[in-house]
Amino acid sequence: MRLLDRNGDSEFGQRHRFGAMRCVDDYRTGVPLSTYEDYRKAVERIAQGVPGVLTSEPVVLLEPTSGSTGPSKLIPYTRSLKAEFRRAIAPWIVDMFARHPGLLWGQSYWSVSPVVRRDEYSESGIPIGFEDDSEYLGSFGRMLVRNVLAVPTGVRLLEDMDTFRYVTLLFLLRSRSLSMISIWHPTFLTLLLEPLDEWLDRLTDDIATGRLTPTGAMPAETGRQLRSAMRPDPERASEIENCLASASHVGEASPALWPRLGLVSCWADGNAGPYLPALTALFPHATCQPKGLVSTEGVASIPRHGRRGAALAVRSHFFEFLPQDSSPDGETVLAHELEADRRYSLVMTTGGGLYRYLTGDLVDVVSHIDSCPLFEFAGKDAHISDRFGEKLNSVHVQQALDRAVARYNIAPDFAIVAFEDAPGCPGYTLFIESHDASDQELLTLGAALEESLQENYHYRYCRDLGQLGRLRLFRIETGAQRTYATTCQENGQRIGDLKPPALHTMAGWSQSFSGRFLERGVPPVPGGATA
Fold it and tell me: Which of the two residues, 6 and 458, has the higher pLDDT score?
């Protein structure tokens, strides 16, 4: 009711008669469930400088994220929405330090996202994107965090990915008192540590001498600021060399490298789960705390120490839930009506102007604390594939595939994009059957599709970080439709639902289809898959 009262004078509030609403049922009756496409034109007007479109208060920035029918979308941020984030983040941080008081006396690493957009503004001058990730914390939180950061926030301005990794790793190794690491996907950290052996001599030399010599280029001003944070520390360089020389792998050395490290916070639910063991093996002496459910649009849950599941962030937004067995236009339930051992689709209303917004997140309710539900993130809905945070949407993939097919005049008999967990190089694959196109024509089609997919803000980010490899192409030799139908039926799908989507959320299709991978510059191998 506070949200309705606050935004009653907005165009959206007047159109839906917020002022006449007296209860939740009035709101659910008067405002339909929505997706981002329902807001796209409104956000475009906000970007043009039109006030009072979705909220009565001004929009202070537009935060980019992945789109559904388009490659990207911009989420309006108001002061109210930022405050809603802080009302969830603050109790999490307080609980974390209360449970692990030793974290207060060390340095922390808060994952810094490499910059994708630099100094970008809408046509009316609204900033696009946060200055850095600590903006979520507010002014006091930023001051607190920045005073104990092991890695300067200026690292995010390094656009060359190897330089970004080198400098981040350098500052982490310099920190004797590293006590807490907060990242998103576990692979962010495992990939960060992967080149440690290759770069070790250069890293220890830089630490010993106080220099900064990454292999790639740095912007002049950023390089100057980062170098000013360096001090010669030959003792620490010697410690690092001795620790790693006496260990067979990084996980064996890390307790000596970072003896105060007590907590690693990261995603652990859904598709992130399989990558967690590799991370815990790197830091066997630290507690791994699963993160709550946080997205660009809002924050849904807060991790709870020692309890399975995260607590609903009841002080942040207004939440509704669609039971998984309901239709998209079905009736929602409220937080106090959630039942344990059931799956729901998350719907939120926020101070940023998203009303009854279908987030696409699926959650499993595992228990309650008093009346507050605890749930785990179960994954994205059937139209979204999200292994590392890339948030590929089937509608956008279909549009990109249609453009590429028309551009090269290829008529596929069958085509889907799906995730393949290839050893050392997980990524997406275009599975295609086309009797009229040559291998080279299909490879050209795949390259065009990959270019279009990288218009997706988060997909490109995962590609740049190395969490995802480039799109591969698998040529299906024969029987694609029959194999697809058989495989789906074996996995419990009803025969009446077997319309192939452009993006399939099930992995492992290379084991089902008869055909071979096509590789750029590699001659095809008849009758089998190439490496």
Answer: 6
